[in-house]
UniProtKB/TrEMBL annotation:
Protein name: histidine kinase
A GO cellular component entry from the record: plasma membrane
InterPro entries per the UniProt record, alphabetical: HAMP_dom, HATPase_C_sf, HATPase_dom, His_kinase_dom, HisK_dim/P_dom, HisK_dim/P_sf, Sig_transdc_His_kin-like_C, TCS_sensor_his_kinase
Pfam families recorded: HAMP, HATPase_c, HisKA
Catalytic activity: ATP + protein L-histidine = ADP + protein N-phospho-L-histidine
UniProt enzyme class: transferase
Enzyme Commission code(s) on record: 2.7.13.3
Transmembrane domains' residue ranges: 12-33, 166-189
Signal sequence, start to end: none
Cellular compartments annotated: Membrane
Domain HAMP: 193-243
Organism name: Tunturiibacter lichenicola
Predominant cellular place of this UniProt entry's protein: membrane
């Protein structure tokens, strides 16, 4: 469960609201029940006291004490009566229903009521054995002036038990209800959010792949429908702008190729002229060098715009990556040797991916070429290839000049070069990593970089691993790579012939 998802947040919000409502409700129920039970007990004590006054004390003088005793014992039998009843006259007990048996409460230890305190009032006290009691005392004055105190009382233990049980029920039920509401709410939210999830997945798909596809329109007539329509319109506009951009760079680089070739030809012809002054020769050579650089840039731009547009003719076939990496490194080892750089290669066998052989080689070439370029003499470059979690992982690490931390996020951008790289005479075009990234993208892969300035740089390419059957593997291995035709041109050749077919070197 993603805690930051809309579904989780809406559920959390609604559970929080429900929790507040339940807590408020529980407190209200508890207070209400307690008030109701206390009032009921008070009412019962009050009614008992006043009915004793009316029914037994008023006729007492006429009917006599024996009748009174008999009637009281019958109505409020000793030990059984709940509430208990005690009647006093001038400190003398007229009637006492005695200790209560159920619940057992000792009444006999309670102090006698006096006229001085608590008349016509409910007060709480405790029996000698600690039980909580509620007691009510009224004073009755007979027609001939006798002052009689009537005391009624009851144990508050049943009431407290009831309240305690209610408290426990609320305490257990509230989290239980909240848990059920959270799980139920989370599951129920899946349904209304399904179109949003579909929309998001499609939007991601459109972003990752080409833009040709559109988002599904949710025919709900609400905000979701408007959102899907608005997003589709936005994708239309983006697609248009992107296509315009791609057309522009493809057209520009295409248009630049012919004049560049002509300039090159003219300059080379000039260079062949006899008795050319040394200064002119220098100038022409320098112009040729710059022309070569420009050709490389134009070629790289064309490659990128084709990869972007998906118009690049790529032959996506099952490929054994280890042999591609090894063959390519073999071809590049001379460049490393020139700088006395130790180039090591460690590849796992049987790592298959679906891809275009030439483009996959280009990944290796561009990364290793950079490593060689940015590693000082006597440094080391290590290339590793292994499988990890259904991905083929290619790592190229070097002990070179590294990249400043602030420059790292920009190195995959087109024409980006760090300051150290700019100051180098060998200088690149700033398009090598952008091409690798575009190739990775077109192979559903990723490219990432880690670097410590002045120490090391590691580039990591991940491509989806291809699972092949034994038969497919043997079929694949029957197609032998011909090292002669795959021969890697040297950097000098690259400069001399920056034509499109030389895709093995860094462009
Ligand atoms: P360039 O043609 O300039 O090498 P890239 O796109 O290949 O262009 O690389 C972009 C920038 O990233 C380079 O200019 C360089 O500053 C930096 N860079 C790339 N690879 C490395 C590396 N292995 N070590 C140090 N810096 C690197």
């Amino acid at each position: 469960m993603n805690r930051n998802s809309l579904r989780a947040r809406v559920t959390a919000f609604y559970v929080a609201m429900l929790a507040m409502a339940l807590i408020f409700f529980s407190i209200a129920v508890y207070i209400g029940v307690r008030a109701y039970l206390t009032k009921s007990l008070e009412r019962s004590l009050n009614t008992t006291a006043h009915s004793i006054e009316a029914d037994y004390l008023a006729p007492l003088e006429v009917k006599g004490p024996a009748w009174f005793q008999a009637e009281m014992s019958e109505s409020y039998p000793p030990g059984i009566s709940d509430p208990f009843v005690r009647i006093f006259e001038a400190g003398k007990v007229l009637y006492d229903s005695g200790d209560m048996r159920d619940p057992p409460v000792r009444i006999s230890d309670l102090p006698h009521p006096t006229t001085a305190e608590g008349l016509n009032d409910f007060h709480r006290t405790h029996s000698s054995t600690g039980q909580p009691l509620m007691v009510y005392t009224v004073a009755y004055t007979s027609p001939n002036g006798r002052l009689i105190l009537v005391e009624t009382g009851a144990s508050m233990e049943p009431l407290q038990h009831l309240l305690h049980s209610l408290f426990l029920i609320l305490l257990i039920a509230t989290p239980g209800i909240l848990f059920i509401a959270a799980v139920g709410g989370y599951m129920l939210m899946a349904r209304p959010l399904r179109p949003v999830v579909a929309l998001t997945e499609q939007a991601e798909h459109v972003g990752r792949k080409q833009m040709g596809e559109r988002l599904p329109i949710i025919p709900s007539g609400d905000e979701l429908e408007r959102l899907s329509l608005a997003l589709n319109r936005m994708i239309d506009r983006l697609e248009e702008a992107l296509a315009h951009n791609q057309r522009f760079s493809a057209d520009a680089s295409h248009e630049l190729r012919t004049p560049l070739t002509i300039i090159r030809g003219e300059l080379e012809a000039l260079l062949q002229m006899p008795a050319l002054p040394a200064q002119a020769m220098d100038g022409i050579s320098s112009a040729l060098e710059e022309g070569d650089r420009m050709s490389r840039i134009v070629h790289s731009l064309m490659t990128i715009s084709r990869l972007d547009a998906g118009g690049e003719r790529m032959e996506m076939v099952p490929v054994e990556l280890a042999s591609i990496v090894r063959v390519t490194l073999e071809h590049m080892s001379l460049l490393a040797e020139e700088k006395s750089i130790a180039l090591s290669c460690q590849t796992d066998e049987r790592i298959y991916v679906t891809g275009d052989v030439m483009r996959l080689k280009q990944i290796v070439v561009n990364l290793v070429d950079n490593a060689i370029k940015y590693t000082p003499t006597c440094g080391a470059i290590a290339v590793q290839l292994f499988a990890e979690r259904q991905r083929a992982v290619l790592i190229v690490s070097d002990t070179g000049i590294g990249i400043p931390a602030e420059a790292l996020p920009a190195v995959f951008e087109r024409f980006y070069r760090t300051d150290q790289a700019r100051s180098r005479v060998s200088g690149g075009t700033g398009l090598g990593l952008a091409i690798v990234k575009a190739i990775c993208g077109s192979h559903d892969g990723t490219l990432s970089i880690e670097s410590v300035e002045g120490k090391s740089t590691t580039l990591r390419v991940e491509l989806p691993l291809l699972q092949l059957s034994q038969r497919e593997i043997s079929d694949l291995h029957s197609i032998v790579v011909n090292p002669q035709t795959d021969r890697m041109p040297s950097r000098e050749q690259v400069c001399e012939k920056p034509a499109e077919d030389l895709i093995h070197r860094k462009v």
